[in-house]
Amino acid sequence: MKTSPVAYAPGSPVSLARPRWLDFVELTKPRIALLVLFTVAIGALLAPQASLDVAQLIHALVGTALVAAGASALNQWLERHTDALMRRTENRPLPANRLTSTEVLFFGIALSCIGLGYMLFLLTHPLAAALTAVTHLSYVFLYTPLKRMTTLNTLIGAVPGALPPVIGWTAMTGTLELPALVLFLIVFFWQVPHFLAIAWMYREDYARAGLKMLPTVDGDGTATARQMLIYTIALIVVTLVPVFVGDSSGMYGFGALGLGMFFLRFVWMFGARPADAAARKVLQASLIYLPSVMGLLLLERWIRYMMG
User: Fold this and answer.
1) Cα–chain-centroid distance for residue 268?
2) Using one digit for the tens of pLDDT, what is the confidence trace for 71-84?
3) CB contact set of 76 (below 8 Å; sequence gap of 6+)
4) CA nearest 189: which of 147, 143, 240?
5) Contact partners, residue 19, CB within 8 Å, separation at least 6
6) Closest Cα to residue 183, out of 198, 172, 196?
7) Contact 186, 238 (CB under 8 A)
8) CA Rg value for the chain
9) What are the pLDDT digits (tens) for 22-32?
């Protein structure tokens, strides 16, 4: 396989040969893709037991993985100029000139089309494929350009970010119901403190690139902390909805509340003293919180299944 030299940021060590396929893998943002697939699987596994179809779940995961990879590549194609201005992204394949703009564009389009076609042909319920298309289009063509226009981009981007569990649910059921809405809202509200923590840590990078993230216009962190707090409280409330409507037991409720208080503690600490270290703790807590609360929902479902 052909290799090309790695381009490094100024002042970095001498470059080593790097296989081109690694650059194409990097375009797909594997860590984000894994989180997306995790939430798709959660949505499918929390659907009514009679609806669970392992083959359909696999098809949903494969199709979503392809579309998400394509969306990430197209996102980097659209942001290639701003990525070159930020330290945290300047060594990505495009700004580092390891791949050409044409290669990345066709790679992103091909993966997106193959993934959507795969889902349309192999999923029983076309609603899941339709939601995947909405997720892709709103992420690439709405959220991505809005990052240069308004600080509201985080909220707008949270919509496609919260749709994967609904894709999983609809892949099993073909319907939109209250539990799917709850999953959507959990991921939607969770994203706000998660991404604002990242934006605070890299606010100088974002400002240098001209991206309008809230922390770039919030010098003392007051507005950032307020938004984190509001959406974390909303998150805690929505995680308790399954208890209020009788879909989950008090065991889940106490667990969800405890996890919410754990997350809220770090958000509150950031509000008391906005700083990079506090923002990093919010980010770390968010990465513990989401899989934990989803795991509680799955545990509740498993216990109910075992008890008949």
Assistant:
1) 23
2) 999 999 999 999 99
3) 27, 83, 92, 93, 94, 104
4) 240
5) 1, 3
6) 172
7) yes
8) 20
9) 999 999 999 99
Tokens of 91: 């060594």
- Give the type of residue at 34: L
CA atoms of 263 and 122, how far apart (whole Å): 39
Which ranges in 123-202 belong to alpha helices (H)? 126-138, 144-146, 153-162, 164-173, 178-201
Largest Cα separation within the chain, whole Å, is 63
What burial class does residue 185 get, using C-beta atoms within 10 Å of its C-beta: 0-12 exposed, 13-18 middle, 19+ buried?
A: middle
254/251 Cα distance (integer angstroms): 5
Amino acid at 188: F
- Residue length of the chain: 308
Tokens of 62: 């494969």
Instruction: Tell the burial category of 69 from Cβ atoms under 10 Å away from its Cβ (0-12, 13-18, 19+).
Output: buried
pTM above 0.70, yes or no: yes
Q: Which amino acid is at 236?
A: I
Please report, as a single letter, which amino acid is at residue 279: A
Taking alpha carbons only, the member of 42, 86, 82 closest to residue 60 is: 42
Full DSSP string of 86-139: -TTTTTSTTTTTSS-HHHHHHHHHHHHHHHHHHHHHH-S-HHHHHHHHHHHHHI
Q: How far apart are CA 87 and CA 76, in angstroms?
A: 15
Amino acid at 112: S
